[in-house]
Design goal:
This protein is an alpha/beta fold. It folds into 2 domains: 116 residues, 3-Layer(aba) Sandwich (Rossmann fold), CATH 3.40.50.2300; 54 residues, Winged helix-like DNA-binding domain superfamily/Winged helix DNA-binding domain (Arc Repressor Mutant, subunit A). Helix content is 48%, strand content 14%. The protein has a 5-stranded parallel sheet with strand order 2-1-3-4-5, with helices on both faces. Helix 6 packs across helix 8 and helix 7 crosses helix 8. The longest helix has 15 residues. The radius of gyration is 17 Å and the shape is globular. The relative contact order is 0.11.
Length: 206
């Protein structure tokens, strides 16, 4: 059995905060060690609890510069940012600073959980390219996240396993592994294992 991923959350609106607590509390493989932490107290909370993943409210950030400083000082904690209809520009800026995921608050719970697990593994969750103007996010359904099985395949790909080794480890067919790999590449916006390795190591070199 895997060790639970430790979690901390920043300040959110009451309904969002309650939803996050219930969502995280309902997962055996997640453990909330600090909740509703104000921006001024986030640094000390990270130092004290050392959570693997921190969920922040974009609306509570004093500035992107402050976010960047936090990420540099606490680079062992992966950060997931929830925002109200974030634009591609906002997400790309945060991802470039080292945020692991930037997702809309209306994203479904299961996809938030997937984003948390991917972040805990050091991966970035990259939003889909918008098919409409950035200002029109009314129907935006959130980033195209990996499924649980794709996340398993991704972890083995990151470890340098061949398709045959992945198939044996997960007890699935070789063609199924290839299909999962194609989906992973498409969702993460890469075209090869080499590009995937570059993406997964981007956080480490910051």
């Amino acid at each position: 059995m895997r060790v639970p991923v430790t979690m901390a959350t920043g300040e959110f609106e009451d309904l969002v905060a309650l939803g996050l607590e219930r969502l995280i509390g309902g997962q055996d493989n997640l453990r909330l060690v600090a909740r509703g932490v104000s921006w001024d107290d986030i640094g000390p909370a990270l130092a004290e609890h050392g959570p693997a993943v921190l969920i922040l409210n974009f609306g509570s950030l004093p500035s992107l510069a402050a976010l960047r400083e936090l990420l540099l000082e606490h680079d062992a904690t992966r950060v997931v940012v929830l925002a109200n209809r974030p634009s591609a520009t906002e997400c790309n800026q945060m991802l470039s600073f080292g945020v692991s995921a930037c997702i809309p608050k209306e994203t479904q719970g299961r996809d938030v959980i997937n984003a948390i697990h991917l972040a805990s593994r050091g991966m970035h969750v990259v939003p889909r390219p918008a098919e409409r103007a950035e200002s029109d996010f009314t129907d935006f359904a959130g980033p195209e996240l990996l499924t649980a099985r794709e996340a398993d395949v991704l972890e083995l790909l990151q470890n340098g396993r061949t398709n045959a080794q992945i198939a044996q480890a997960l007890s699935i067919g070789l063609e199924t592994v290839r299909t999962h790999a194609r989906h992973i590449y498409g969702k993460l916006g890469v075209g090869s294992r080499r590009e995937l390795a570059t993406l997964s190591s981007a956080r480490a070199v910051r």
